[in-house]
Structure formats: structure tokens, C-alpha cells
Amino acid sequence: MELHDAIEEHMDLHKRVEDRVGSGEGSLDADEIQKPDQCELGKWLVGDGAKHQTRPQHTKLAEAHAAFHGACADVLRQADAGTLEDGALGDKGPLYAALAELCVSISSLSVRIQ
């Protein structure tokens, strides 16, 4: 797996969550999105990427990855419940912060294992 592809994959998920919240349409399931082992990066982290688990960057990436999926699920649940706060989807919101941390963590591990 090319780790930089995971950045694009998760940026796409971020956009799909934003689009779903903005339009109220779509079929994103918060319970499924919350599971970090369902996407290619998640499968890689516990599969082929597990050989790097002694590196602190792997641990940081696994944590950031789970946090991002959790943030996506939280936003979807809050939107469905009508409790999503203004600004939650902006560049100061928790979803964007989780995506940014994930991207930094992907890049950090990528540099170490190339």
C-alpha cells in the first residue's frame, strides 16, 4: 500500500461526511465508519504494516486513524440527532483537526519506512 494514497482516501471520506451532513442525503453509516479496520489503511496497519508497529510513528498513526474515524462517526451521529454545533465542519472543527493529524501521522510514518 502506498501510504500517500491513504491521505486521499481519508480526504475523500471527510468530504463525503461533509456532503452527507450538508445535504442530509447519502448512506454513510456511523457505526461502520467508526471501525478503523474497514478501510485500506486500517487493514494495512494490522496486516502488512504491522511489521512497523515497534515504531512510535506506527502507534501514532494507528491512534490518529482511529480518532479520525471516530470523529467522522461523531459528526454523523450529531447531525442525525440535530445536535451538530455550528462550525463543527469548518477548518477549526474537530473533524478537520482529526483529518489534519491523520495526514501528518501518515506522512511521518511514510518518511520513516521508505
Tell me what the structure shows:
- The protein has five helices and no strands.
- It has helices spanning 3-23, 30-33, 40-46, 56-81, 94-113.
Please give the count of helices.
5
How large, in whole angstroms, is the Cα Rg?
14 Å
* H-E string: HHHHH
Into which percentage range does the β-strand content fall?
A: under 5%
**Class inferred from helices and paired strands:** mainly alpha
Low-confidence stretches: none
Straight-line distance between termini = 12 Å
Helix % is: 55-70%
Outline = elongated
Rounded average pLDDT: 95
Q: How many strands appear in the DSSP assignment?
A: 0
> What can be said about the biggest beta sheet?
none
Outline the secondary-structure elements:
Layout: H1 3-23, H2 30-33, H3 40-46, H4 56-81, H5 94-113
Please name the defining characteristics of this protein:
114 residues, mainly alpha
Précis, in short:
The chain is built from 5 helices and no strands. It has 114 residues and is mainly α. Helix 1 runs parallel beside helix 4 (56-81) and helix 1 packs antiparallel against helix 5.
